[in-house]
Amino acid sequence: MKNIILIVFGMFFTIANAKFKLKLLEPSDGVLSSKFSYSLILSLPPCSLVGKNVDLAYNNTGTSESKALKSIFQVPNCRSKRDLISVTEKNNHFTLTKDLGYQVNNLINGTQYSFQYVVDTEESNILTASTRAALSYTQIDDGLPARSAAMVVITVLLSVAMFILLVGLIISLFYGNSGD
């Protein structure tokens, strides 16, 4: 009898403290990349939480700055369209729409964050991910600012070829009209 009570209590305890899986989307999910310079694409909560509001809590692990986004979306029915990141494939007979994830925007370039969904009383696991580090376009070394010798040679050859074509066109027009 005590074993049954322990098993039932253990099941209720794990159900009460159950965490659903939060992850970055992968190429197998239908995206090329889920990491960008200023945003990340997170997976959606499971379909068992359909209709409930989703809150997202995240913090910058470098500065410990925390943000909480309340009611960012409702967990959509897995059989209907979602107003989230979606991919549409079309062929002659049907259209297939896959709902992929939620894109967190306005993040800082090259920074590590911790994310967690909260849906009613259920929480996701804590996901640690970082945005891509990208250089500002002003910091990119564009090399020699002058023209290379190859560019000069190609420009001269194309200019001479264009001159020859124009002279040939003028001559053909002149001889073509003088035959009548």
UniProtKB/TrEMBL annotation:
Pfam families: Uroplakin_II (PF07353). The chain crosses the membrane at residues 149-175. The keyword Transmembrane applies. Keywords: Membrane, Signal, Transmembrane, Transmembrane helix. InterPro entries: Uroplakin-2. It comes from Synaphobranchus kaupii (Kaup's arrowtooth eel). This is Uroplakin-2. The keyword Membrane applies. Residues 1-18 form the signal peptide.
